[in-house]
Structures are given as structure tokens and as C-alpha cells.
Amino acid sequence: MSEPIKKFLYLNRRAPYGTIYAWESLEVVLIGAAFDQDVSLAFVEDGVYQLTKGQDTAGIGMKNFSPTYAALGDYEVKKIFVEQESMTARGLSLDDLQHLTWEDEDEDYAEKDSIQVVSRAELAALMEDADVVFSF
Amino acid sequence: MPIEVNGKSFETDEEGYLANINDWEPGVASVMAKEDDLELTDEHWDIINFLREYYEEYQIAPAVRVLTKAVGKKMGKDKGNSKYLYGLFPYGPAKQACRYAGLPKPTGCV
User: Which ipTM was obtained for this model?
Assistant: First the structure.
């Protein structure tokens, strides 16, 4: 008997380094993606920094795991939401973030954008709609 | 248990994965394969090298499903399928090939 597919939302609220939350979240997402769930990621507050381009961790002696976000498309994670208000408050725009895509095998591997910028109200609705919310 | 390659000793974890990815050299793969009674062909090396490139780009070892799809895209559908990959690496294309490639155990691999 197969379980019904649940909607999982992974909420990322913290800066990428300094705590283990961001990397842990990404690992859980990659592991969870192997189990045919409906997966969405949301980035709010300092979590928006996780997706920024040009991260350099040489000075803090931690592994720069930001290239791994680009593998999310391979793992069929196609819905990545970034909150507009959080970006604005930090002087960031979509151009400061990595360009994340997924490839549509049915359309000859056409690249499609994974990141959608949403308002705080839209994000609240997404959280309401999810069956399970993991907050990191 | 460390493995011996060309007189050099390489540290591995309890499951036989190389402790430090940067230590890797092709001889590591050959020695590991010999222990599994496997002769490495060009087809094996294509996958091993592909995995090393994947790790270089994304900093993770891909899950088998992801590997299969990515190989299919790069090398064609006749290679991007489980039958072909399991034929090369009977202990599991991601697990076994990643180990030979000096990568950690794939993320999402139980």
C-alpha cells in the first residue's frame, strides 16, 4: 500500500554559517527528495543569505556548501520560495542569488527557474497549505 | 581499515570510503576494485570520473537516481539506466562507484 504524497515545506531562517542549521536542512531535503514527496523550500529572514552568490568560507574554515543548492534540480526539487520582505530588509535582490534551475526531461531538458520570489502573505499561505513544515 | 596503494597508505572509514577525498588517486579505485574481484574497464572509469566531476561541481555525491539521470543526460540513455550501471557496479552504482572515486557515501543513501 502506498502512502499518500504529503506536501513538505522546509523553512530556512538562518544565515548559512555559524550554526549547522542550513547545511542540516539541505541534507535532509536531499535525503527526503529520494522518497517521492512534494517538496518545497522557503527562505526567510537571514535564511535568504543561504542562496547568495559568491560565498567564500576560506576565512572561517568551514566547507562552502553553496554549490550544492545547484544540485537541487537534479533531485527534482523545483519549488524554491524566497521572501521579498526579507531580501528587501537586507538590501538583496534576485540578482544577488544563485540562478537555480531544474531541467524538464519531457521538454528535451529545457531549463526552468526554480526560485520564485513571494510576499510575506503568499508565504503564509504556502505554510498553511503544507502538510508538514520543517523549520530550520 | 587503511588500504595500501603503490606503497602508500590511505585512511578509510568503517564502510571503506576514503577518509579524505583529496588523497584520491586512480590507483585507489583499482585496489578497491581488486578487493571486490572486479576488473575496471573504460566504462567503469567513465562513471568514476563522472562522479568526481559531479562532486567537484556540487560538493556532494549524488543519490543513485540522480546519478542515473545525470549519466543519461551526459552519455546517452543507453548508459543512463539502472541495468547498465548495476551491470558495471553490482554493489550499487552510487555506493560502489563513489567509494572507488574517493567520494563520501552518497547523500540520501541509507
Answer: 0.84
